[in-house]
Write a structure and sequence with these properties.
Layout (H helix, E strand, L loop, with lengths): L1 H12 L11 E4 L7 H12 L2 E4 H10 L3 H11 L6 H12 L2 H6 L1 E4 L5 H9 L6 E3 L1
Parallel strand pairs: 1-3, 1-4, 2-3
Helix pairs in contact: 3-4, 3-5
Length: about 130
C-alpha cells in the first residue's frame, strides 16, 4: 500500500506531459545546400507536423510592425547575423504555438553553435530526434 502511494505521489509531482502518446520534436543539421529545408518540408508533410525555418521566422517577424520587428529589420536588410537573444525570443514564440505543442515540429536553420543549442535547451525546447 505504501509503495502504491509513493508511486502516485511521484507521478503527481512530475512535470505533466502532453496527452499525445508521442509529440515529435525534430532538429535537422547540415551545411548550406544539403537539403535541410526540402527534407524538413517532406517530413512535415508526411507526419503532419509544423515545419519551422529559423530564417523564415526572422523574416516574418522583421516585416511585422512590432518592437521586435523594428529591432530585426537592420540585421535582415544588411544580411548580418541576428543576435542570439532575439532569435531565441522569436523561436520561443514560434515553438510555443498550439500547433507545435500538440502536433510536433521540425526545426532547421538553428542552432548554429553550442551556445545557441544551450540557449534552446534552457528555453525548454529539447528535440527528441536530431538528424545530421
Amino acid at each position: 500500500c505504501v509503495d502504491v502511494f509513493s508511486q502516485v505521489l511521484t507521478y503527481v509531482q512530475q512535470q505533466h506531459r502532453s496527452a499525445a502518446p508521442f509529440t515529435p520534436r525534430i532538429l535537422l543539421y547540415g551545411p548550406p545546400g544539403s537539403g535541410r529545408s526540402l527534407q524538413a518540408a517532406l517530413i512535415a508533410q508526411k507526419y503532419s507536423i509544423v515545419n519551422i525555418c529559423c530564417g523564415q521566422l526572422l523574416k516574418e517577424a522583421a516585416t511585422g510592425d512590432t518592437k521586435l520587428g523594428e529591432l530585426l529589420k537592420p540585421y535582415i536588410e544588411y544580411g548580418q547575423q541576428v543576435p542570439d537573444n532575439l532569435v531565441i525570443k522569436i523561436l520561443k514564440d514560434g515553438l510555443s504555438n498550439f500547433d507545435c505543442t500538440t502536433r510536433g515540429w521540425v526545426l532547421h536553420g538553428f542552432p548554429r553553435d553550442v551556445e545557441q543549442a544551450t540557449e534552446l535547451k534552457d528555453a525548454g525546447f529539447v528535440p527528441n530526434r536530431v538528424v545530421f
